[in-house]
Amino acid sequence: LGFTPTSDGNVIRINIPQLTEERRKDLLKQCKSIGEEAKVAIRNIRRDCVDSIKKMEKAGDLGKDQALDGIDSVQKSTDDHVKLVDESVGKKEKEVSTL
Fold first, then answer.
1. Which residues, in sequence order, are bridge partners of residue 13?
2. With helix as H, strand as E and coil as C, how does the chain read?
3. Mind listing the pLDDT tens digit for each residue in 1-31?
4. Of 85 and 5, which is predicted with more confidence?
5. pTM of the model
6. 15 has which bridge partners?
7. How far apart are alpha carbons 16 and 13 in whole angstroms?
8. Could you give the count of Cα atoms lying within 13 Å of 38 in the half-sphere of its Cβ?
9. I need a surface site. Which of 8, 37, 49, 79 has the fewest CB within 10 A?
């Protein structure tokens, strides 16, 4: 993060420099990167869930309609969570970019 701690014996001081334009750009890139990693994780969970539903359907534990309803439910939940991640990243970008 670019902090330099100094020790005064009993107290540890951490000097936090003002954000420069370059540092803001780095933080924005980092925000977008973390957001993208979160979306990939959400998609991986969706894939695992859909695979589980298909296996259950193939094994006869679920009917075709139930499987389709489950897949639709997983997709809707995925879309909602991706939207939440996008909103969080957008808020953080605004927060970092404002002076």
1. 6
2. CCCEEEECCCCEEEECCCCCHHHHHHHHHHHHHHHHHHHHHHHHHHHHHHHHHHHHHHHCCCCHHHHHHHHHHHHHHHHHHHHHHHHHHHHHHHHHHCC
3. 667 788 888 888 888 777 888 888 888 999 9
4. 85
5. 0.77
6. 4
7. 10
8. 17
9. 8
